[in-house]
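Example 9 (inverse folding). The structure is encoded as follows.
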């Protein structure tokens, strides 16, 4: 039940934390007042997931089974309101899928709501579980002291002579009953029934498990049983047929990277969302699920224009960029993508805002040095509290963890402008499907917070070509700026074009531009050039 080794990017952050201020940023815009638990300091990703959960609970259809909100961020949205009340759920997955984490978090979130819990352990010791849960922010020891949590150690004991474990489910049931009587428990977790596989494989194994499930239901408990299942098998074992609900956790290796997903496979008599959803495990927070189905096309739109930081580009865009738009800058290496992003960040000074940059290819010091060469003083902006640069190699974390970290930084710094340089660097850290989900999650979040964003993407060749990054992102951005090399009369020159700009007229010419001490200068249109798109 280890936390992801790559839970959070190693960031280079040196700018001071800003004082709270009133502005366009609204950290609860995905569901205010939902998502914020009193007295708890949680990241935006967690609050956003809780907001979706609360909305899902509110939207339950009349006549549906009564539900118990799990409290696990994002899960109640996937389950369309939570787990059916007083029923048993089997959580299946191979090693490293976070089954024990989910079971413990299910109980811990209940305790936070005043619902006592019993944890039956068939494998790990109670002391190890207390210590491990503490790293996830679950103070089990305090809950035990308050009479809200009790461990039942039901670890199978081997016969010293035969080496065989003889297990009695009626004894286990009696232990559970005593613990429930002492705590008045509402929630139960059993981890893991795989530890008594030899009993389950016996002629009466299925019936004994079925009787256990029935008795647990008669006690009025909403329970979670974990089970070690084989990935890719047609069946996970006999357990899935005797319980009401089945949740499958997966920890797949995709393109040399691990990716965790959750799927509600079965929920007897109750509605639930279909398919797999990514999740991550964060220190001091536990499991956070990131369902794309939480996204809604309800983000605000503004007709206010602000400067891109480059007067020539502003002219091409009919006076500037919309304040809440997302801009994709596409170009080969050396075409000036980071320079355009630098000018974009410096432009925040004109509207007295804050700017935040996520750099995945260059260090903070290198970015600051280059900015000085183009006449921009990033050090002064940082001292003023108007700029923060977060630099990290993409490979230090999964795409899901990068998304959570990006949301956390934005929520903490409250910028008006955000730069991601570059998406192409992030693309190589996950599968094509994972990157598309990341891109949709990122852009929808930026939209929901009404923040102006510039995303850079590298082309596969020096003279253009479509990249996988552009294919995933171009349709969900508002403005696309192409930077390309142009070969003319034996010389390599540079050309710029605004390919699209939603909701606004824009210049359609292919313009020459140069890079000098003052930055990027947009010149007159090319007259003898047919295309820079390839």
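The amino acid assigned to each position is listed next.
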């Amino acid at each position: 039940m280890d936390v992801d080794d790559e839970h959070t990017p190693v960031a280079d952050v040196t700018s001071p934390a800003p004082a709270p201020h009133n502005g366009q940023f609204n950290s609860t815009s995905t569901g205010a007042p939902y998502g914020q638990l009193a007295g708890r300091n949680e990241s935006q990703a967690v609050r956003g997931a809780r907001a979706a959960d609360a909305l899902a609970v509110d939207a339950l259809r009349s006549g549906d089974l009564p539900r118990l909100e799990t409290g696990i961020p994002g899960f109640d949205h996937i389950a369309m309101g939570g787990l059916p009340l007083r029923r048993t759920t089997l959580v299946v997955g191979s090693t490293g899928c976070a089954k024990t984490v989910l079971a413990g978090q299910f109980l811990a979130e209940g305790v936070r709501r005043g619902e006592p819990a019993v944890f039956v352990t068939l494998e790990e010791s109670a002391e190890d579980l207390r210590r491990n849960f503490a790293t996830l922010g679950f103070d089990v020891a305090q809950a035990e002291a308050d009479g809200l949590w009790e461990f039942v150690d039901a670890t199978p004991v081997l016969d010293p002579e035969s080496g065989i474990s003889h297990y009695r489910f009626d004894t286990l049931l009696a232990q559970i009953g005593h613990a429930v009587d002492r705590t008045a428990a509402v929630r139960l977790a059993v981890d893991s029934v795989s530890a008594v596989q030899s009993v389950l494989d016996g002629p009466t194994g299925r019936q004994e498990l079925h009787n256990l499930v029935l008795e647990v239901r008669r006690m009025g408990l909403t329970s979670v049983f974990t089970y070690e299942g084989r990935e890719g098998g047609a069946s996970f074992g006999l357990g899935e047929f005797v319980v009401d609900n089945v949740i499958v956790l997966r920890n797949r290796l995709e393109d040399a990277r691990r990716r965790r997903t959750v799927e509600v496979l079965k929920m007897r008599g109750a509605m639930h969302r279909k398919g797999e959803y990514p999740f991550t495990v964060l220190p001091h927070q536990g499991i956070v699920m990131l369902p794309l189905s939480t996204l809604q096309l309800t983000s605000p739109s503004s007709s206010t224009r602000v400067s891109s930081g480059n007067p020539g580009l502003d002219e091409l865009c009919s006076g500037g960029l919309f304040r809440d738009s997302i801009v994709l800058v596409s170009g080969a290496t050396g075409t000036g993508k980071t320079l355009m992003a630098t000018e974009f960040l410096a432009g925040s000074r004109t509207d007295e805002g804050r700017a935040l940059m996520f750099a995945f290819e260059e260090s903070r010091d290198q970015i600051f040095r280059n900015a000085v060469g183009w006449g921009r003083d990033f050090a002064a902006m940082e001292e003023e509290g108007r700029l923060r640069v977060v630099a990290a190699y993409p490979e230090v974390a999964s795409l899901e963890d990068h998304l959570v970290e990006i949301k956390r930084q934005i929520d903490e710094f409250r910028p008006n402008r955000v730069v991601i340089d570059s998406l192409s660097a992030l693309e190589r850290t996950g599968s094509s499907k994972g990157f598309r989900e990341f891109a949709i999650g990122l852009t929808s979040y930026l939209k929901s917070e009404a923040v102006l964003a510039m995303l850079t993407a590298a082309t596969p060749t020096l003279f253009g070509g479509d990249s996988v990054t552009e294919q995933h992102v171009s349709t969900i951005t508002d403005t696309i700026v192409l930077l390309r090399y142009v070969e003319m009369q034996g010389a390599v020159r540079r050309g710029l074009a605004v390919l699209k700009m939603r909701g606004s007229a824009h210049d359609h010419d292919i313009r020459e531009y140069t890079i000098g001490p003052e930055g990027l200068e947009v010149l007159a249109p090319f007259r003898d050039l047919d295309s820079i798109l390839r």
